[in-house]
Design brief:
484 residues, alpha/beta, Rossmann fold, 4-stranded parallel beta sheet, 4-stranded antiparallel beta sheet, RNA-binding
RNA sequence: GGCGGGUUGGCGGAGAGGUUACGCAGCGGAUUGCAAAUCCGUGAAGACCGGUUCGAUUCCGGUACCCGCCUCCA
């Protein structure tokens, strides 16, 4: 039995799908204006685990997972406009498409690196403009929205349950006085469904003139088109709970009163970096790609994410990444390449039970340690695979091989390692040790393993910049000559 | 000001009203040419004040501190 903490009821509840033959979940996806930062990756990994769990329980063909791309956004517009003014050919809409294609490609590459499965459907907001307009027309017809000065606004007072998800009342929020007051609003809490576009902004023809949709309507329109008026799970970061999700509920429930919209709401807590909120002003802002480029494998990032329950704030630290890498290294050495993995047929209950219990991934990882210690390697491998770990040789290579060096450098280092092994085998301890010392001086630690095998690692991986790499190559050539 | 979440051993981090979380580090041992790695073993906790209970770190109330959201940042 799956149990999930439903934000809507603030309780952990047994999960009962509306239709076990088609379990439906929707995750608010990225705004595709730039590389995804690390915080963007947390819901992707967290709800990837949920997706895997649902597929396991209900069958892979019986789960529909929708994650949208928001490709209408002022930051995208700014980039496209800058390109057009720089002389790029094409309409603004085409340039926006170009920019978002590029960003979506990055997003896929980065999330793939984290071992996240692609959703069943990844709709783009700009492909659903007509459906958004239709939904807005329905809201106007039902008295839930009104047009004014080229804008269309949602009439918050027309939806009695507004605020139920986030536990707020409209009156309290107005008392808080942090709402935008605009002349075209009947009520300060009303929010935009449609807004006018001038010539420098992308726009679509609508009954209210050329314009573009507000932020919230896209998710309502796309979830309705792809999942229906009622579906099972709606997920996203806790920062979206208000206003985004609250507004989605208001729009969808007013436009489709016959449906219940999402049955279960899941929200992941925020990510921090070394104990502080990640922000550009604090200088601790980085993207997934930044970490990958630093030689931190995606599997390490995934492992670190899984160590903290999704409902709690997660602190990303360099130390955690290092510890995670050590575990993964040991596990990959234990199991060998994927083709040698002996995987038990069933996911062990020690792993499945905590994941079923509101996605307790830390508990599931703890179970992996237990299975490892108990020598139950087939179940261990099965459990790891279920969590999206230890399942591809590409990722194995990222963990075991090192570490963002060129092939040429890697093969030179391997050459040194072979020489070192030879000296050790012949018990030329003095020669072997002086080679080891020389290597340490250029930043590489030689390590002996069992059975005359050996390995190497960087003394301090953070110090490997490009200039360092070229001097490294010269040093390696020198050592290869001296110790041949 | 409004709403929500958190406070666990040296550190990270879970579940469960009563029985070992788990990991890292530490300590003891094995192994090793030295070292690393690995393996075995091991001590250590539940912010504070009350309440419910035979029994609470786990439920309830309060205090302190921290954090998030209310600014189209997941």
């Amino acid at each position: 039995m799956i149990r999930l903490h439903n934000t809507k009821t603030r309780r952990k509840e047994a999960f009962v799908p509306l239709d076990p033959a088609n379990v439906r979940m929707y995750l608010c996806g990225p705004t595709v204006y730039d590389r995804a930062h690390l915080g963007n990756a947390r819901p992707v990994v967290v709800f990837d685990v949920l997706y895997r769990l649902l597929r396991h329980v209900y069958g892979a063909d019986h789960v529909t997972y929708v994650r949208n791309f928001t490709d209408v956004d002022d930051k995208i517009n700014a980039t496209a406009l800058a390109r057009q003014q720089a002389g790029a050919p094409g309409s603004l809409e085409e340039l926006i498409r170009e920019r978002t294609e590029e960003t979506i490609g990055w997003y896929h590459a980065d999330m793939d690196a984290l071992g996240a499965l692609r959703p069943s459907v990844e709709p783009r907001a700009t492909d659903y403009i007509a459906q958004m307009i239709a939904m807005i027309e329905g809201l106007i017809a039902g008295g839930h929205a009104y047009a004014k000065d080229g804008h269309v606004l949602f009439r918050v007072r027309s939806y009695k349950a507004y605020g139920a998800l986030s536990g707020r009342s409209v009156d309290d929020m107005i008392a808080g006085a942090r709402v935008e007051v605009a002349p075209f609003k009947e009520d300060p809490m009303d929010f935009v469904l449609w807004k006018p576009s001038d010539d420098e902004l992308p726009g679509w023809d609508s009954p209210w003139g050329r314009g573009r949709p507000g932020w919230h309507i896209e998710c309502s329109a796309m979830s309705y088109e792809l999942l229906g008026a009622s579906f099972d799970i709606h997920a996203g970061g806790i920062d979206l709970q208000f206003p985004h999700h609250e507004n989605e509920i208001a729009q969808s429930c007013c436009a489709h009163p016959e449906g219940g919209f999402a049955q279960v709401w899941l929200h992941n807590e925020m990510l921090q970096v070394e104990g502080k909120k990640m922000s550009k002003s604090l200088g601790n802002f980085f993207t997934v790609r930044d970490l990958l480029d630093q030689g931190i494998p995606g599997e390490v990032i995934r492992f670190v994410f899984l160590q903290t329950h999704y409902g709690k704030p997660m602190d990303w630290t360099a130390e955690k990444a290092q510890v995670a890498r050590n575990h993964l290294r040991r596990w990959w050495e234990l199991l060998g390449p994927v083709e040698y993995h002996s995987v038990s047929k069933n996911v062990p209950s020690e792993v499945l039970n905590p994941v079923s219990n509101d996605l307790d991934t830390p508990g599931a990882l703890a179970a992996l340690f237990q299975l490892e210690k108990a020598g139950r390697f087939e179940e261990f491998a099965s459990g790891a695979k279920f969590l999206g770990l230890l399942n591809s040789n590409e990722k194995r290579a990222e963990i075991l091989s090192s570490k963002s060096l060129s092939d040429a450098l890697n093969s030179k280092i391997e050459g040194i390692v072979r020489i070192w092994i030879e000296h050790r085998r012949n018990k030329n301890w003095e020669v072997a040790d002086s080679l080891k010392t020389a290597m340490r001086e250029i930043g590489i630690e030689l390590v002996a393993l069992k059975d005359n095998r050996s390995d190497w690692k960087h003394v301090d991986p953070d110090e490997l910049d490009d200039s360092r790499q070229s001097s490294l190559e010269a040093s390696l050539d020198e050592l290869l000559r001296r110790f041949r």
